Structures
1.
Amino acid sequence: MGIQLLRMKSSWDSVALAPPDQIFHLNQLYLEDKSTSKISLVIGAYRDDDGKPYVFKIVRKVEEEMMKDHLNKEYLQMEGDADFRAGAKKLVFGDDPKLLERIVTVQALSGTGALRLGGTFLSYAAPKGAKIYISDPTWPNHMLVFKQSGLTNQAFYPYYDAAKNALNFDGMMGELSKAEPGSIVLLHGCAHNPTGIDPTKEQWKEIVTLCKKKGLIPFIDLAYQGFATGSLENDAFAVRLFVAEGLNIVVAQSFAKNAGLYNERVGAFHVVCPDVEIAKKVFSNIQIDIRGMYSNPPAHGARIIGRILKTPAYFEEWKEELKSVSERIQKMRKLLFDELIALKTPGVWDHILHQIGMFSYTGLTEAQCTWMKEKHHVYLLKSGRASMAGINTKNVKYLANAIHDAVANNPKKQQAP
């Protein structure tokens, strides 16, 4: 006689299976793929020309120096490492002491953690129930981060013109012009993810004017400073323009991409305040937010960046290395474009050259992306977003042929007039 075992009712029976994160799930499929010709254009992490993860030389140098210093493992203050915070603030906003004294800067758990801190702060500092406007498309994690930080009233503004592979500036401005005063507008400071399309300087001026006129709260996600154009100064243009025009903005800053510190989780959250007294109040509240989330941030990565930013010779080395990294990606854009033109691949591909930063919105359809994955072992998001860092001189011809084959066998459907 068999014994039937009955499972006791669990407290977790009501928990449903969550869908996988599309980016990490696709990357897992790539890792499991046994093909020797496979290519990943999925994860936004820089690779060298051999397709290997790249550790900045200046980071290695500073780490070796720090090892000799025998630094302790004591807790940092809630707001983080002092050298890091001072350097990160100047990197974004410049070195005007009168301005810097009214900007609150705290260390965060990379860009994602900075966004989360920002969302939490705005959930009580912005008008109750304030709507946050997010570009369509955007980094997929934005919506989840803001939802979990209390910004549940989310709306979207047009950003990408699929027909022209360009910025839909009129659509963007038209939607934001309808926003209520006190609404929050999430803007990508440079190297828009996923499109690689940024407003021009003149368009940024119009965006600033609109935010000022409407009384909107700009929240700038600055994840790629120095990675877009190769210049830290150029890539801070939009942030500094908002501040110069007197807007009280918030900024999420990351050192994952521009210093290659992906797994060190190094970032900062900044709040520009009208005066020092308000800055003190804001700082005290964000300290409480940090205490309730994780108490204090990790030290290692912040110490690396802090030392680079406060040491002039190291800072110059970092800038040169960052420039070379940015230039390699620009070179890969040109090589891919040239290969597609040589193959006479159907369509227009100029946008690959004009987009900037780590990503390209290729214009490939979901069917074409699926074709590339299943037939050629080339992995990119179904939206057609590709990480240009995954391209190198050894795989660019194979990639171009895969794109050509996918486009030729899966032509886009013509839209009815």
Note: Residues 193 and 215 are 26 Å apart (CA to CA).
2.
Amino acid sequence: KRDAVQQALTSAEENEPWRRWRWVEKTLLAKAGACVVLDGATGTEIERLAGPESMNKKGWSCNCNFTYPEIVSEVHRKYFEAGADVVTANTYATNANIMGPAGLGNLAERATTQG
């Protein structure tokens, strides 16, 4: 049983998300002294650049991956230009519990995985 568990863990660590996490561990955590703080504020910055009319009244920035993709990209670009090593995706509000009441429930999965 132990060999099967070890084999499963080894296989999992070979996939892309685990490779990326190993990079975070080796690069960012070592550099930061084992402390990385992520506070994207992506939606707030999108609203600042695109204007308050860009926000969905019930879902805040949930629709912006579709309606303002260039602004979402610009926000991330500016974070990197400011020196960020990592940025967070604009997925804070892209779940069915928020997108449903905003009238966009059918787009929740797409907004999170492709947006």
Note: The chain has a mean pLDDT of 80.
